Structures are given as structure tokens and as C-alpha cells.
Amino acid sequence: MHISHTMTLSPVFVIVAIIVTTGYAQICAVKDTSLDCRNRNLSTVPSFANIPDTITHLDFSFNNIKTVNKFNISLLSSIVEISFAHNIITTIQKGVFEIFTNVEHLDLSYNKISKDSFKDEDLESEIGRAKRLTLQGNDLGSLEDLTFSTYHFLKMEYLDLSYCSLKFLGDMSINNLVNLKFLNLSYNFLSDFNEDFLPGEMGLEQLDISYNKITTVKKVPVLIELKVLRIDYNGIDFIEDGAFSTLLGLEVLSLVGNNMKTLRPNMLPLKSIFSLKEIRLDKNPWRCDCNMKWLFNDMDDDFNFKNFTLICSFPSRLRGKNIFTTSSNALTCRAEYSRLTYILILFFSASFMVTGLIYAVYIKRKYFKCNKCCEKKGGDYVAVFTNDNTNADEGTNVKITTADDESLVKNEERTGNGQVHYFDV
What we know:
Distance between the termini: 154 Å
Structural class: alpha/beta
Radius of gyration: 44 Å
Strand order of the largest sheet: 1-2-3-5-7-8-10-12-13-15-17-18
Low-confidence stretches: 1-23, 409-418
Order of helices and strands: HEEEEEEEHEEEEEEEEEEEEHEHEEHHE
Helix content: 10-25%
Mean pLDDT: 79
Shape: elongated
Number of helices: 6
């Protein structure tokens, strides 16, 4: 009887499962714990009923949704992540995400959300319900004062504002995110990173401002709980001594791919911050000379240089070598020319030599030609007057030659009835 009962229920279960999934299977697909509605050419959020209770992720990315309307969906408490990435969203209706009591991550990356969109209180109240908010790729341009208000963003711990074309942050623009732990501002156009950049009372633990336009670092914000700071690929060429000394809890400092050439003893908080465990300085054009000897002489033996590779770009004899694999005696400050300087010197030297040679040949040829022309022959010189012209009005021809040039003096056929006058030279 037990076996027969089991076999009777199985077909019923299959039929029920088909009925439950028929409402959305033609629009979206269930993949493990995700309801996958990507690339379905959706312009609005579809309604779903009786979705499996295993679903924790809703993915509506890569569609044409402009306004996020209210969901008609069951099992709302199980949803922890919602993605609307790569749509054209400008508006979010009030109360859309209010029903998702356990949502942790809301992805609105690469939409049409602008800084003016934040003037809509409904949008603020809705996107502030998640712990993690991704706004990557929205053309914000700048953040006005009090963009993220305390009331709507109390839960937020993670904020991604990368690729948002940010040129500056307004005063108090993100100051009210009191529980924020991670802030990503990479791939923007920020040029200032000073003590007023962020408030010290923030409990921020990780800050990424890589790929911006920062060239000088003087005094960084007093973020005493900050553990990871990334300022990679900014073009930084100057860091003031003690600039990072206020980051008392810092563990990782990354300055990869900037334009730093020398490393001074007090430029990095090697001794002032005891929590510091890792420094990344690779892909900078380091000049390995006498100014870098302190790395061998004054370095704290207890410091752990994890991934601390410092590859020399200058001088040429050390190019491509890690400074920590060379000896301190190799770090000298004698005057050295760059390869370009050598090439220019060689080019101009060769040009002067070729020019001088050509000039010398020209002068020599001119001298010998003139000397041959004016060479004095022995004997007397004579003037020969001839009347060879058929027209008497054209005058008399005169030629000067030596007395021994018989072709003019004695050849009557050539000179005609000319007259000869002798004179000494």
C-alpha cells in the first residue's frame, strides 16, 4: 500500500509544478536560486505568482525598463538581491522595494540615473533600503550636498559610484552614510584628495579612488577606521611627508601605476602606522639612486613587504631590476644622461662633422680652380686687336694672351689683319 500511495502522488506533484511555473517560464528562467529575466526585451517588471521558495535573486538586467513599478510577486521575504543593471531607468515608484524586507544588494548599474534623480524623494527612499547599492556607470557628474540623507540610508554599508563621471563631491554629499564600510569612487574625474574629501567621523573601512585625476597628495582625510586605501593609476607624482599619518588603522596601501620617481623616508607611514601590513608600489617609474638608499639602511626589520616590488626605470643600468635585489652600493647619484640625450648628442655631433667636411671640400675645390686660372706663365703678355667682324660698326675685338701663344699672334688666318701690342706683366 505504501508503494502504491507514492506512485499515486507523484503525477499529481508533477502537474502542480507545471501549473506553478507556467506563469513565468515563458518570460524568465529559473536557474538554481535565481529568477533569470535577462535580455527579455522587457519594458516593465512582469508579475509572478507562486515562484519557488528557493529563489533569492531576481535578475532583470539588460532590458528596456525605464520606470520600476511595484512588483506582484510572492515569497518576498526570501529575496536578498535584485538587479536592474543595464536598463534605462530614470524613475522608481514609491514603495517598490519596501516589500522586500530582507534585500541586501540592489544593482542599478548602467542606467540613466542622474544627480537630478536624487531630488526625487521616492527614489532615495527606495534605493536606500539595501545594505549594498551599486550605481556604477550612471552619469551623475557630481554629488550635490546631502545627496545621501541619513534617514533613507541608515542600512547602507557598501556604495559603488565607479564610472559615474564624478568631477567633485559636494560638501556633506555622502557624510550622512554613518554605517558605510566600503566606498568605490574609481574610474571618475576626481582631482582632489585632501583632508576635506570625507569626514573623519565616517566608519569607512575600504576606499578605492583608483583611475582618477589625482596628481598630488598632501593631507588625506582623518579616517581612523580605514583599513584599505587604493589610489592606483592616478598620475600621482608628489606625496607630502606624513600625508598618510592620520590613517591609524591602515593595513593596505596601494599606489600602483602612478608617476612617482623617488621614495623619501617619511613619505609613507612605514613607522608611524603599526597596523600597516602591505604596500604596493609597482608600475611606477622609480629612479633608483642614492636617494633610495634608506630602504636598505633604515628599514624596519619587522615590516612585512608583501607584494612590495619596486622596479627601477632609471638609471639605464638598473632598468627592469627590483631595487631589493640590488646592493645599496649600486644606488649612486652620478650625472647620467638618458638614452634620448645620448641620441641627440650623437646626432648633432655627426651633423657638425658632415657639414664641416662638405665645407672643407668646397673651399679646396674653389681654391684650386682659382689658382689654376690665375697661374702666371713665363714670358711677355700681348694684346691682340682684330677686325674679324663683317660689320665695321660693331668695333674691334681685343684678346689678352702670352707672347708665346702663336695661335693668335702669328696665325694670320685666325687674326686677320690684326695689330699686336706687347707689354710686361
